[in-house]
Amino acid sequence: MIDIKKLREDPEFFRKATRAKNRDPQLVNKVLELDRKRREILQGVETLRAERNKLGKEDIKRAKAIKAELKKLEVELAQLDTKLKDLAWKLPNPALADVPLGKDENSNIEVRKWGKIPKFDFSIKSHDQLGESLDVIDTLRAAKVSGTRFGYFKNEGVLLEMALLNLGFKFLLTKGFIPILPPVMIKTEVMSALGYNNYGFEDTYCLPEDNLCLVATAEHAIVPYLKDELLSEEDLPRRFVGFSTAFRREAGSYGKDTKGVLRVHQFNKLEMVSFVKPKESEKEHQFLLSLEEELMQRLKLPYRVVQMVTGDLGDPAANKLDIETWFPSEKRYRETHSVSNTTDYQARRLNIRFKGKDGSDFVHILNGSVFSERPILAILENYQQADGSVKVPEVLQDYVGEGIISPKS
After folding, report:
1. pLDDT for 373-387, tens place per residue?
2. Per-residue pLDDT tens for 22-52?
3. Domains of the chain
4. What are phi and psi of 314, to 5 degrees?
5. Beta bridge pairs of residue 175
6. Which of 149-186 are b and which e, b meaning 16 or more Cβ less than 10 Å from the residue's Cβ?
7. Sheet containing 212-214: which strands, arranged edge to edge?
């Protein structure tokens, strides 16, 4: 949610910021007009209340007239409050000043690369082919049971996933993160407050009869954990690492990544969430990115860091960086991690504040991927061998219990 005071002070800044995120800049004008009407009616209400407080017992007729007028104005005020909130919530969080302008993902900027792209002297397989030959991923049976965009992880595929979770949890506990297992269903109004559904719930699985939505990442249930709470300055930063199953309709991805399990309706994910003081959020953003990179380097998977441009940020993020991992079968990098700074946008909508020496203020909230199931697919492709087997990254071998995953006879 945007600070309405800042919106009044500098509407042109917010028009430009809204346009940069491919949203209608006229929203700013509409919000300001509703805000003007609301303040006008509120002033009338306050004037009438002040007059009523000065009336004597003999002013019965005027008291009745004021009561009737107040009732009418308070109804109008309540209606305007609802309209104003609904419209104001559609405004995106302005990108930070150093985020490059750009229309969409095609304009995103490579920041750096790490690792050597593997070279193969044999015909390589894609992750879906390897998943089948090694009997670690089964999409054919999943299609019979659940339909398209589902898969069974099995055998060493399960062990690889548990290994990544163990690696991620243990690593982040040494960094002071609080482990948490959140619910996978949250109230519809809480999901709305996160800011990802400002223009609809097409990509979200919801249960209207229960007023619940299924989360699309553990972050969706962890961010509201401190809803309506006032923290002390000494409590910050507060960092969580949480695991949950995630659910996504993938409504806008028709025809994309239909093979394998790169883009699915259900997957598991380990996620970081940080609550920090405003002046610390940009530093925290780089810190979370550094943790993601360290874990990827332990896996020895080649990757690149990509800066999102304004048009690819989404509504809540003021800045976002992705890690894209090399997929040999496609000869390109694919997104496996992201890390976002939502500044005070979500905190305002969820009313999460902290109290410091200079009074109270809204916290800044950040989120970042630790591991989803996509790195498993990258491991299969980058560590494949000529005989059809796949090496297990050294850092995961103790968890998996073996160094090689061989084809099933």
Report:
1. 999 999 999 999 999
2. 999 999 999 999 999 999 999 998 899 888 8
3. 4-88 (1.10.287.40), 105-405 (3.30.930.10)
4. 80, 170
5. none
6. bbbbbeebbebbbebbbebbbebbeeeebeebebebbb
7. 185-187, 212-214, 206-207
